Amino acid sequence: MALSCWDSLDVAVTDGGLTVEVAGAGAGELPTDESHLVVRAFRAASAELGWTPAGLRLSARNTIPQGRGMGSSAAAVTAGVLAAWALCPDVAEVDAEAVLRLCSELEGHPDNVAPCLLGGATLSWTTASGARAARLAVDPRIAPVLFVPATTLATHLARGLLPETVPHADAAHAAGRSALLVHALTRDPALLLEGTEDRLHQAQRAPAMPESATLLARLRADGHAAVVSGAGPCVLALAVLGPDEDAAAPAAAVQVRALQEATPAGWECRPLPVDPTGAVVTPLSGDHDAVSSGAPGTHP
């Protein structure tokens, strides 16, 4: 699901060399050379298109928290691939299916890049010909609230805590809850608490993020549909508004007050509406060799 927390990047083709500037989240920590993820994604897309620009200038303004389960790497990959597609002189328009396939290959799976690219909530899967995705319209009464800790958690460490196999009963439980969650997200938000029940990864990863596990347990005990965002350690709660309220309206701030009051010390609470649009590419000042590429954060 795409959330309204964006990284925005200005990308321009130059006569030579590479310039990378990073402001906001990750400034002073992310690389400013060819190893920058946006640059790597741009290069991969350019190679697929058979195009080699002479030089590249990248200016990134990041707001997606790094290393906290909010899909920052998926946003970087999506922005880089889209920028290459938009700037390539031999391409008339962006091929969304080809972009999804390449982004999924670079990210390793389509779970995060699909909502980042398409917006809303997405169902994604992989076929012999590559990644596929279908977009879902999220019920407007759902108001996501993100809890962001000061600590980070490396995705590879979180993945290492997962068992190679799970009991058949847990697999069956997950399949049923997955179907229920689709219905809850799109038609009946009252079922979100049951639809977000998990047996596959949250308890297994709890030792690596005890504060997240404690917050998650407390929120769910209070009746809130809360989950670990991605591999963590962010926690996402899905508030449900009244039938005549809209999550994008100012009144939503009142509805999520109980969640904001539950924010642990040292954590940040961010109400983040669902982003219905996904990644966007805009020409810069009429310059055909420069674009602004923006991508939202995601909760997988």
Which SSEs are present, and which pair or pack?
Elements lengths: L1 E13 L2 E8 L12 H12 L6 E8 L9 H16 L8 H12 L5 H6 L2 E7 L2 E7 L5 E7 L6 H6 L7 H19 L5 H4 L6 H4 L4 H12 L3 E4 L6 E6 L11 H4 L1 H5 L6 E4 L8 E5 L2 E12 L2
Parallel strand pairs: 2-3
Antiparallel strand pairs: 1-3, 1-11, 4-5, 6-8, 6-9, 7-8, 10-11
Helix pairs in contact: 1-2, 2-3
Category from helices, strands and their pairing:
alpha+beta
| Largest sheet: number of strands, sense, barrel closure | 5 strands, mixed
One letter per element, helices H and strands E, the order comes to EEHEHHHEEEHHHHHEEHHEEE
**Strand residues, percent:** 25-35%
Shape: globular
Give the CA-CA distance, first to last residue: 6 Å
In spatial order, strands of the major sheet run 2-3-1-11-10
Query: How many E-type strands?
Result: 11
Give the assembly state of these chains: single chain
| Gyration radius, rounded | 19 Å
Estimate percent helicity. Answer: 25-40%
| Count of discrete alpha- or pi-helical segments spanning 4 or more residues | 11
Query: Average pLDDT across residues?
Result: 90
Poorly predicted ranges: none
Give a verbal description of the structure.
This protein has 300 residues and is an alpha+beta fold. It contains 11 helices and 11 strands. The strands form 3 sheets. It has a 5-stranded mixed β-sheet with strand order 2-3-1-11-10. Strands 7-8-6-9 form a 4-stranded antiparallel β-sheet. The protein is globular and about 60 Å long. The protein starts with a strand and ends with a strand. The mean pLDDT is 90.
Characteristics of this structure?
single chain, 300 residues, alpha+beta, 5-stranded mixed sheet, 4-stranded antiparallel sheet, 11 strands, 33% helix
